[in-house]
């Protein structure tokens, strides 16, 4: 068996390297990758700004979908031939990738591998941060910033399916409409006017129980102002900046919780717990089509730089995916 994978010689030079696929450990599977999801972290890794953890594969790619072709003896619930989507510890931009058995979800026939590859990172990120750290419950109001993003487009649907009232942000009127179509009851255009005022005018000032912030920077004070008493704010990205000037009094006057996380640094057991919870609470809605992956475009693996440029420009809606069979 031969594997091909992407290696960034420099940030602007991607080559295809050939070798032998790795052998899965006792708790791992080897997946013949058909499609791999692209994430913002991959762009940062390519630029040398987000080195992978020491125990991770240096090959980029955090999520894949394909068919299991080999597995370790402790993966008793899986079989060779199963179609799965999975979170990888790096190594997804390849024809073959290793994943832990308990970091896989079996793909129903109704989902293609390009759709499957768009799911694991978004499902895990939203579950861990919104349902886990944010403790969102049915009937509460959640603000998911960037409803047009890979993370947000799934997050809006997950929170809606769990019975929350979802409000969101996006960067144009058309993108706001598209996020509304995913289930959000109100979407503010973050490129037009003042965000806090838009949400306050819609009746959400000081009323938001959970906020997923994908951009940071100047959004943070808006988050604090919009949060309800005992609200939970979870920051997972810094596209608007790593520094925020905030009024700390807002935190203690409303007893707010400000937290965050990064999926890459979450230990394998915690990820496995999230997969089990998603399998129980979210996967049935994915199988029924109530929650659907939004794939904007699919690029051949060899056009990975063009795909990354597409993401950098931010004109996509939902996810960008690589086709990995040929390379
Ligand atoms: N911590 C974690 O574990 C974790 C995991 C996954 C992702 N993330 C982070 O979450 C963020 C989204 O990731 P993704 O993969 O979903 O990315 P993505 O699909 O590229 O989405 C980014 C979206 O953010 C919006 N945006 C761009 N500039 C913005 C700004 N200045 N203010 C507000 N919104 C802006 C854009 O939509 P509009 O043009 O419609 O606004 C864009 O579609 C990234 O920052 C990523 O690093 C964190």
Specify the CATH homologous superfamily of the largest domain: Medium-chain alcohol dehydrogenases, catalytic domain
CATH-defined fold name of the largest domain: Quinone Oxidoreductase, Chain A, domain 1
Strand composition percent = 25-35%
Oligomer: single chain
State the shape: globular
Mean pLDDT rating = 97
> End-to-end distance, in Å?
15 Å
Fraction of helical residues = 25-40%
CATH architecture of the largest domain: Alpha-Beta Complex
Structural domains: how many? 2
CATH class of the largest domain: Alpha Beta
Low-confidence stretches: none
Structural classification: alpha/beta
Rg, rounded, reads 19 Å
Count of alpha/pi helices:
11
- Secondary-structure element string: EEEHEEEEHHEHEHEHEHEHEHHEHE
Query: Number of DSSP strands?
Result: 15
Ligand roster? NADP nicotinamide-adenine-dinucleotide phosphate
Largest sheet: 7 strands, mixed
What does this structure look like?
With 327 residues, this protein is α/β, with parallel strands linked by helices. It folds into two domains: 3-119 and 293-323, Alpha-Beta Complex (Quinone Oxidoreductase, Chain A, domain 1); 122-263, Rossmann fold (3-Layer(aba) Sandwich). Helices cover 30% and strands 28% of the residues. It is built from eleven helices and 15 strands. The protein has helices spanning 40-46, 113-116, 120-133, 150-161, 173-181, 195-201, 219-226, 248-254, 268-281, 283-288, 304-313; strands at 3-10, 13-19, 28-37, 63-71, 83-87, 96-100, 104-106, 141-144, 165-170, 186-189, 208-213, 227-235, 257-260, 295-300, 319-323. The strands form three sheets. Strands 3, 4, 5, 6, 7, 14 and 15 form a seven-stranded mixed beta sheet that branches. It has a six-stranded parallel beta sheet with strand order 10-9-8-11-12-13, sandwiched between helices. Helix 3 packs across helix 4, helix 3 crosses helix 9 and helix 6 runs parallel beside helix 7. The longest helix has 14 residues, at 120-133. The protein is globular and about 60 Å long. The protein binds NADP nicotinamide-adenine-dinucleotide phosphate.
């Amino acid at each position: 068996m031969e594997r091909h994978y992407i290696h960034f010689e420099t940030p602007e030079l991607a080559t295809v390297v050939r070798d032998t696929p790795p052998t899965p450990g006792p708790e791992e599977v080897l997946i013949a990758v058909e499609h791999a999801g692209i994430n913002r972290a991959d762009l940062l890794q390519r630029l040398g700004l987000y080195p992978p953890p020491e125990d991770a594969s240096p090959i980029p790619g955090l999520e894949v979908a394909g068919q299991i072709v080999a597995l370790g003896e402790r993966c008793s619930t899986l079989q060779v031939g199963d179609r799965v989507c999975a979170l990888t510890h790096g190594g997804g931009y390849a024809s073959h990738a290793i994943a832990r058995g308990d970091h896989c979800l079996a793909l129903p026939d109704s989902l293609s591998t390009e759709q499957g590859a768009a799911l694991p990172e978004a499902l895990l990120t939203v579950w861990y941060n919104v349902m886990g750290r944010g403790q969102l419950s049915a009937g509460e109001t959640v603000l998911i910033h960037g409803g047009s993003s890979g993370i947000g487009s799934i997050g809006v649907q997950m929170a809606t399916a769990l019975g929350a009232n979802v409000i969101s942000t996006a960067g144009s009127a058309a993108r706001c409409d598209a996020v509304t179509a995913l289930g959000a009851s109100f979407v503010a255009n973050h490129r037009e006017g003042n965000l806090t005022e838009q949400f306050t005018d819609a009746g959400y000032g000081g009323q938001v129980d959970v906020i997923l912030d994908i951009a940071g920077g100047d959004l943070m004070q808006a988050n604090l102002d919009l949060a309800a008493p005992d609200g939970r704010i979870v920051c997972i990205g810094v596209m608007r900046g790593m520094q925020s000037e905030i009024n700390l009094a807002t935190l203690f006057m409303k007893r707010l919780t400000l937290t965050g996380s990064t999926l890459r640094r979450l230990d394998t057991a915690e990820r496995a717990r999230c997969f089990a919870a998603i399998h129980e609470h979210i996967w049935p809605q994915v199988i029924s089509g109530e929650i659907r992956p939004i794939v904007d475009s699919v690029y051949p693996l060899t056009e990975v730089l063009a795909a990354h440029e597409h993401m950098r420009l931010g004109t996509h809606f939902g996810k960008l995916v690589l086709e990995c069979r040929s390379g």
